[in-house]
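cache lookup: miss for this entity combination. No prior model stored, computing from scratch. Input as submitted by user K.M.:
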Amino acid sequence: MKLRVDYKASLRLVGTVLKYLAVPLCFPLVVALYYGESVLPFVLTMAVTVLVGMGLERLAEEPDIGAREGFLMVATTWFAVTLVGAIPFLIEAHGVPFVAPAVHPESTLGNPANALFETMSGFTTTGATVLGDISFETHTRSIMMWRQLTQWLGGMGIVVLAVAILPELSVGGAQLMDAEAPGPGIEKLTPRIAETARALWGAYLGLTVLEIVLLYGLHVTGNAPNMDVYNAIAHGLTTMPTGGFSPEARSIEAFSAAAQWVIIPFMIAAGTNFALFWHVLTGEPKRLFRDTEFKSYLGIIGVISAILAAVLFVGDGLVSVAPVGETYDQFYLETVRTAIIGNVEPSLRQSLFQVVSIITTTGYASTDFNAWSSTAQYVLLFAMFIGGSAGSTGGAIKIVRWYVILKSLRRELFTTAHPEAIRPVRLAGRAVDERAIRGIYAFTLLYLVMFFISTGLLHLDAARIDLNLSVLESMSAVAATLGNVGPGFGVVGPMGSYLDFSNSSKLYMVLLMWMGRLEILPVFVLFTPEYWRR
Amino acid sequence: MRVIIVGAGQVGSSIAADLDSTHEVVIVDCDPERVDELNYSLDVLAIHGDGTSVDTLQEAGIERADMVIASTDDDETNIVVCATAKAVSSAFTIARVKNTEYLRTWQHSEKAFGIDFMVCTNLLAAESIVRVVGLPAARDVDPFAGGQVQMAEFEVEDESPVANQTVSEADRFDSLTFAAILREGAVTIPRGDTVIRPGDRVVVIGSPQSVQGFATTLSPDESAGTAEEVVIVGGSEIGYHVARLLEERGFKPRLLEQDPDRARELAEQLPGTIVMESDATDIDFLEREYIGDADMLVSALDSDEKNLLVSLLAARLGVERTVAVIDTTPYVDLFEAVGVDVGVSPREVVAEEITRFTREGGAENVALIESDKAEVLEIEVDENSTLAGKPIRESVAALPEGVVIGAITRRREFITPRGNTVIEPGDHVVVFVDGSVVGDVAPKL
């Protein structure tokens, strides 16, 4: 155990990650070249990442990573990549003085707070957007591809990726992955942590490619008219990380029912513990359906979707007149109603798509669920807290935590009647360590406290700038950013954006997304004096 | 057959005493006084020495030995004794262990450590305890013919409905045979007009259903079957295995363990058991948890005295039946006399298991009644058997007194033995044999 936090070692590793960020930046660069767009946003950013990265690398010779350095490194990495990742957006909107003019000066990402928000939303796979206009008129295809790529990089985790490919992280890598990986604890799949990280990224990459191929296949066979190569790649890159940045303003509503049906299982897969895929591929497919969390996950999706589908089918889940204060196209509402009510396939598809999208925290929308009744919306708000499985790319509280909490509450009831009874909380037959249970309680409580305080702050700040928000809208905005879900309701709904919030609110939500992705505790611990003292 | 027994403790001496009349027994122990004592008390050759050393084993005549039984109180010693014996001879080796992990390792190959047969004290004790669960008033239950036949020993209480009835009155079951009545230490082979007196113990052989039915007749007030509420006191290895075996049979037992760490460990290993961390002599606790309402309490603490105390306390609170683990074999009778319903001695159970394994003849399975007063044998009948091919009435007449054909299974079907039943070669027969004629009868069957 070290006496003091070796922050230089942490920053050095952040530098290494930053330096290698230049490699993924090549992808939008290629896209820019292909479409004949300006390559400046990417070339300049690459220069920055390499320079800053190499500068930070000079801080320490051989970094030695302990648990505390791990927290600092992981938390800082996410902030650092966000700062650098925002540069292309700024260059696109402002250009570079004396070198190049702005490509799209009308882009809302010219505001640094917005650029930061969009980048953090991307890397944390939140999918909340501040784009004023999601179209190729106001943004280049390459800059949109960068926006999508941030989600893909953030999905399985930049740090996990770093552990997978950087030999200098072979020692201490487990600590780093533990600090970053969603859910309580990590499961070592192989004796070497780098191999575990590679296995997870391999499964992630494989599923992404499969989805892109299938989506494009639909296009080729004429079943998905709008799903061209660009869109297939864009949606592959944003489904598997449960991100939700679609280059289409209407999100997945812009595509055919067939494309929507293809995306649903991939969202479900993205919300599944990736270690399970590894087991399936290494010859233990039974583990998938023996896994308690996976079974509960499918069960929860099934039950909630069935309820919503029924509500939609009979028409109770849809509004017929836009709520007061909303500027809804009455024609749109009517179209949606006639398409869904009394029709099995659309009501099933729409409810399943939205429920899966919200539970896995992907944040795509196959319809504007602002046009749903408030009952249906509260069900979705509730689903925002469930989250995906541990070890998935999904956010929020996660099923395994709820499962452990419910079981330990039942245990509490039992031991009230039988004080001497010893009852371990079991997860798939194995007893859960009491310390882990305490950690789960702490996390969940902190999550809910953060949720309520933030809702209050956001609501007040919105009132300050005369932005008229309902409580449901404020709650959904916080739940969607803290849980890395993306869209909320009302103004921040699936077809809307977070643009109207004040800069201070947006920066606050940047913090929320950051905390949500790192699961709060690693962030909070950085702000305790105990962490910095020995 | 030359048998070398290493370890002259209770188990070793008990096996030696069972075998000395029929085999050439050499017993090895490192306590010189114990060795002297055995040389005088039993018809065996007792040698002083370390059973793990080749020299000692050679002194005991290992090269001529047919069987080596390692029965010291130490698992590792027993394993080394067997491995050593295997290295220098071709004797059949039997080891007694307490740790079930060794048993599991051995079961993987049935050859591990150079051991040919391994018996696990704790597991055997637990199994014999679990067998009496579900049979009210049963003191001992042994399965035969792969579970198709059960032998059970019952105690007849004063208020029992069969007390003072004749055997033919008491026998209300088709597939049940009254094999013996044990009265004041003597074995009687009952006839139809024999009167069953209170305090007698009856040995019955029959199908599990009929034995169950008889158990219910004996004590109609006690609940029977799977609804039993079992409390296990003490999370020893035996306590753990009792809970585990009961879980396997669908029970939801309660287990009391005083040590917090052990209690937690047990709770993690036993998903179907409610583990409670408490002192089993805390009367407030026992009352609060309604322990008195339990059908059965198994006391498996590590001291005989505590087990006696807990059993008596439980009986007083109203537990229907108490089973106590008793380490010191001679205490079994004493404890049963003062109020423990069933006393189980792990050492006796192991000695019995080893003895039954070493029995000569074609017996598939043996149960000992009252240590050696009588035996229940399961044999597969072949052409040369006295029993083959004739009605039981005739074959029994050809055998000495004290033999009862208890049950027959033919191709895993239960057949009730009656006077004119003809036994065919290949049948499995469960026979009750009085101890005094076993030597005579066994070779003829």
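stored under new cache key. The first strand of chain B starts at residue 2 and ends at 6.
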